[in-house]
Specification:
The protein is built from 8 helices and 10 strands. It is of the alpha+beta class. The strands form 4 sheets. Strands 1-2-3-6 form a 4-stranded antiparallel sheet, with no helix packed on it. Strands 4-5 form a two-stranded antiparallel ribbon. A two-stranded antiparallel sheet has the order 7-8. A hairpin with a 2-residue loop joins strand 4 (43-45) and strand 5 (48-50). Helix 5 (172-184) runs antiparallel to helix 6 (189-198).
């Protein structure tokens, strides 16, 4: 931990698998880690070249999405429980850090039923409340998309910024569907399907192409937990190069008889010193 910042391994609420998050102990805030990656990208640092050119972004995330993962697991029990008995995970023991976040009790009212016995509070997952809370999240996302004039039309192949009122040509359904997709990155598929029905979203037409990628060149995969946190979502470029196929021109060039030909390096070598002339 440095400057109150701590990388922790927590559950990804969408996939249920482990992912790396950043916990700011000073601000008492949780951040998710996203990766911007392109092939063959490097960084120039002083007089050296860093071959791994990925960018890691830390963006704030609502901790209630992660708490919701544990609340839903206790739904079958159908009973009220104290939160410290709900948010328990042997695989991700750092999940207890979520309980230290400020105003967590106020947030829980969005997704749970609550009882208080002898000054101690007990909670039970509420699907009805959760869908209403997620609907508000969708509506807030739609407002942000429209405010920033982001085109989300299903016929557009990539999300981009458009000047003027061009973005207004999008249908309201496109905005709802797009916002639903963004929120679905933080909830299980079962809940995502229930939210789609709650929003009364029709099934997408088979004649339309897939909606645009919501994050250009930004990995939607969670950053998996590894010992070396500087190597998230990286590929072995050497293996990639070995597996690359030769083009037709390269194959033709390889068949040329090169006997008697000089190497191109010979044209750039050091010149021979001239002999001294006798007077």
């Amino acid at each position: 931990m440095k400057n109150g910042l701590m990388f922790v391994k927590l559950v990804n609420p969408c996939s249920g698998e482990g992912a790396i998050y950043l916990f700011d102990m000073c601000l008492q805030q949780l951040f998710e880690i996203k990766v911007f990656k392109e092939k063959h990208r490097s960084w120039f640092i002083n007089q050296s070249v860093q071959s791994e050119g990925h960018l890691h972004f830390a963006t704030p995330v609502d901790p209630l999405f992660l708490i919701l993962h544990y609340l839903m697991k206790t739904e079958k029990e159908g009973k009220f429980q104290p939160l410290d008995q709900v948010v328990v995970d042997d695989t991700f023991p750092n999940c207890t850090l979520l309980l230290k976040l400020p105003e967590l009790e106020k947030l829980l009212g969005h997704v749970t039923e609550e009882k208080e016995i002898d000054s101690k509070k007990y909670y039970k997952y509420s699907k009805e409340k959760t869908l209403k809370w997620l609907e508000k999240k969708v509506n807030q996302t739609i407002v942000a998309l429209k405010t920033n004039k982001i085109n989300v039309g299903a016929r557009v192949q990539s999300a981009a910024f458009f000047p003027g009122d061009q973005a207004s040509s999008d249908k309201e359904e496109d905005y709802i569907r797009y916002a639903h997709g963004l929120i679905s990155d933080y909830i299980p598929k079962e809940l995502s399907d229930d939210l789609s029905k709650h929003l009364k979203l029709p099934e997408p037409s088979a004649s339309l192409p897939n909606p645009p990628s919501k994050k250009i060149k930004l990995s939607d995969e969670p950053v998996e937990a590894k010992e070396d946190y500087t190597k998230f979502n990286t590929k072995d470029l050497k293996t990639e190069k070995k597996n690359s196929k030769m083009t037709a021109a390269q194959k033709a060039l390889a068949k040329v008889d090169k006997s008697g030909m000089k190497s191109i390096d010979s044209f750039f070598g050091a010149k021979n010193k001239k002999k001294d002339l006798k007077l």
